[in-house]
Amino acid sequence: MKKIGFLSFGHWSASPHSMVRSASDALLQSIELAVAAEEAGADGAYYRVHHFAQQLASPFPLLAAAAARTSRIELGTAVIDMRYENPLYMAEDAGAADLISGGRLQLGISRGSPEQVIDGYRYFGYEPSEGRSDADMARDHTNVFLEVLKGDGFARPNPRPMFANPPGLLRIEPHAPGLRDRIWWGAGTRGTAEWTAEQGMNLMSSTLLTEDTGVPFHQLQAEQIQRFRDAWKTAGHDREPRVSVSRSIFPIVNDLDKQLFWQERGSTDQVGWLDGGNARFGRTYAGEPDKLIAELAEDEAIAAADTLLLTVPNQLGVDYNAHVLDSVITHLAPGLGWR
């Protein structure tokens, strides 16, 4: 059994070919796709966070709205760039959204990805301290965020407050029990996967890794997952971790599928240059169901993960993306033992 969800970047464009013309369209359709995903039997609705771009940005209003329209699926991010975040305010927003969802939030966070602007986090008021990098700052914000999610008091109360306080130090409110165990780190290398395990976060691995050893992407990612699990065991955490991988998967079951994705049938891994080093990008899976079942059965990273996030082309609209999810769940999942 494997949890299957979607991951949307929430692009919008005024292009006549786009079904998502505005920010309003992107937000409202993101909610509708979560509803459709739940109806199709999917397990999760995840959203990417990008700043200074015509894509989804502030995630918590969206997550809360999707939570109010659904009852079962997980709702998450993949990922929030922690360089931009005030960890205490984020803990308040996350706590509220999680309580609205009934404890269904699964928050993917990370150091972030290449940006639309130069050092965009500086416009948000954040500056790495002397001798520290922006990646260090993201981890510092993360450490504070994880600590306050535990729910322990740390703030000294006013001796003459407007409202009565409980005894002792005060914590961030609202507190969402269990949310600390539902935080994921988007790791781009094998080393950061090991660090993720040491911090007691779940592992979120996408369709690219910022390193390349010459082996196929799925094998490199499977090694990353194994290193994560080994480091988790060494750290001695008292729960089982979760691992997700992202894939672009398009079963061709009708003429529109064929028109849109027929040329992707021969997709292969790609190696490129990202952030000053080699990076390996995973392939797109497209083809008839029998062909995809055979190919996906050989994907070692999918086999090693408990959660699969399907990256969806959101500008094709809610109906088409709901069809993609239904096709994967109906035509592929039973043959692969995921259902």
From TrEMBL:
<feature type="domain" description="Luciferase-like">
    <location>
        <begin position="10"/>
        <end position="258"/>
    </location>
</feature>
<dbReference type="Pfam" id="PF00296">
    <property type="entry name" value="Bac_luciferase"/>
</dbReference>
<protein>
    <submittedName>
        <fullName>LLM class flavin-dependent oxidoreductase</fullName>
        <ecNumber>1.-.-.-</ecNumber>
    </submittedName>
</protein>
<dbReference type="GO" id="GO:0016491">
    <property type="term" value="F:oxidoreductase activity"/>
</dbReference>
<dbReference type="InterPro" id="IPR050766">
    <property type="entry name" value="Bact_Lucif_Oxidored"/>
</dbReference>
<keyword id="KW-0560">Oxidoreductase</keyword>
<dbReference type="InterPro" id="IPR011251">
    <property type="entry name" value="Luciferase-like_dom"/>
</dbReference>
<dbReference type="InterPro" id="IPR036661">
    <property type="entry name" value="Luciferase-like_sf"/>
</dbReference>
